[in-house]
């Protein structure tokens, strides 16, 4: 599998519609790639809380429409990062979209762990309640978003659901960049899975972004890492690497707490 992470810069002077069109053009350029990944809340900016309500949309709204056309034009799977979703009852969610090469919406994930403690996303948005996996040819995606990266039990649940590759879009602050790379590698090592962690560049509502999108293999080796600016990071993934790592070093088999399979006798 060949994957491209689009580390998008969010410029407050660029309108949401202009950014949608620009990002769709970048997706179209990824011909020959199997999977394209976008960052968290790239249409609005992850820290632009004052814009969330005004820019909220349905999962099949304008962001989906431009990405679906781009996915179809390029013939690629697209993990659309995330959008501010407005549910029918008015609740806002931080929601990821997965789009097939035919332009079909094949998966959505509402972020379970909301960041902000007592402000921002944590009080403005509802929490997702479901673990989500999406099967692609060759690998099963497990979906998580940004702050979710700090909660290993979510990723272990995704492994139990069959995940072999975690896709983690984010709007991660520059001041905690070391945590970003450390946690991405930890989630890969402990679950023996690929991690594709795609962040944003630029500044969101005064918060400098970390950038440094990263791809980690099931042994914890960093296959590629971006810098701090807008960048396209493309990498080859060996689907057989997950199974071989788990077979050669069968640590998951020795679990005792939250064990999915019965213990050995």
From TrEMBL:
GO molecular function: hydrolase activity
Pfam family, one: CN_hydrolase
Annotated CN hydrolase domain residues: 1-239
SUPFAM superfamilies given in the database record: Carbon-nitrogen hydrolase
Annotated keywords: Hydrolase
Transmembrane segments: none
Similarity section: Belongs to the carbon-nitrogen hydrolase superfamily. NIT1/NIT2 family.
Protein name: Carbon-nitrogen hydrolase
Organism: Streptomyces lunaelactis
